[in-house]
Amino acid sequence: MASRMELSSSIVAQEELVKTLKAEKASMGEIDSAMQKLLSLKMSYKAATGEDYKANCSSENPAPGSKGGLDDTEAEEDFVDPWTVQTSSAKGIDYDKLIVRFGSSKIDKELINRIERAIGQKPHHFLRRGIFFSHRDMNQVLDAYENKKPFYLYTGRGPSSEAMHLGHLIPFIFTKWLQDVFNVPLVIQMTDDEKYLWKDLTLDQAYGYAVENAKDIIACGFDINKTFIFSDLDYMGSSPEFYRNVVKIQKHVTFNQVKGIFGFTDSDSIGKISFPAIQAAPSFSNSFPQIFQDRTDIQCLIPCAIDQDPYFRMTRDVAPRISYPKPALLHSTFFPALQGAQTKMSASDANSSIFLTDTAKQIKNKVNKHAFSGGRDTVEEHRQFGGNCDVDVSFMYLTFFLEDDDRLEQIRKDYTSGAMLTGDLKKILIEVLQPLVAEHQARREAVTDEIVKEFMTPRKLSYDFQ
What we know:
- The chain is of the alpha/beta class.
- It contains 22 helices and 11 strands.
- A 7-stranded mixed sheet has the order 3-4-9-8-5-6-7, sandwiched between helices.
- It is globular.
């Protein structure tokens, strides 16, 4: 691990680079990459020293001519990359700012109305409530659908533990809905190779987690005739077409670019550096010859949490250079930890979330004991001033899992006015989550090893486009 002095020097140099790029009015992409790297260095400093980095306060002198760090506002920017999400706000990440930083487009009322017209039904509550809030080229996908042209869905899961939590279900619940309403094929990538490279796992453990997680994904109700789930450790070795696309992508991304996008350093393994091309490859239809033959013209739509966007900014940049269509994306917000919206949940902290293996009693205890409250210090104060739904985790969870819009709005009004206490709100959440998790467990119990094998066998899928 780098020393305190080395990390301080790297941070000062990176701060100077950010200032220079801003002064020279460099592109948003360059500034964004530099900012991401700066924040990554500051997190490395904290991990190594146990302290937040403070300009001019480290035991070493800053570089000659340096005026220290960025101003306070820039230093407190939300940090989002594929592995870390950090914010100092109890409300969570500022998603409007993130849209600007990442250069995506907001999912507005006009787009939601267009989706409703295209599918002939009410859009999913994840769309109506802004849980999926940002997109890239969704209008292109709707153009294709309205003109009877093909597209397919691609999403994924990094299997880092045997048990998944509620937050992991969000992209799959939404992807299942997209599969149903648009009637299109879906590929789901299990990045067990990524988890082997990043975590302290053996190859067998990483693959085993992929299979176990696949059972939870299948339990969401995906159509076996339209869904292919694959493990990278398995599929890469049996699909020359997939590997050829990986190599094409690798040829068109420089080491400097991948360092800028992902914050890799010289001490990262070459496996990490080459991995982004593997996550990019399913974006191109001829990576799946058993499904699409050798067609390269079928556009892909990727529903995912916005922390995965750096992979697909890279992919969209490469696509035209290898004569493939750019993938479209739908981005979701982050599902908050029970302790508050400042960070993503951790699979290694059993109390940070509700896991899909939790019993009804465990769910009740976790919500009552750990769910961050937006209520007041005393009942009297709460009755007088009301609670804050913007920071209350129980209310946030209800926005994800309580489908009744009218009831959710009534709860919001009652809690905000003080008519409803925190205990009442937690009780409602427990009553929503207990049956939801129990039903998921029952469906998962019915997923046999044979069913998993069928989902994970390369084969022709069912679709009605030409």
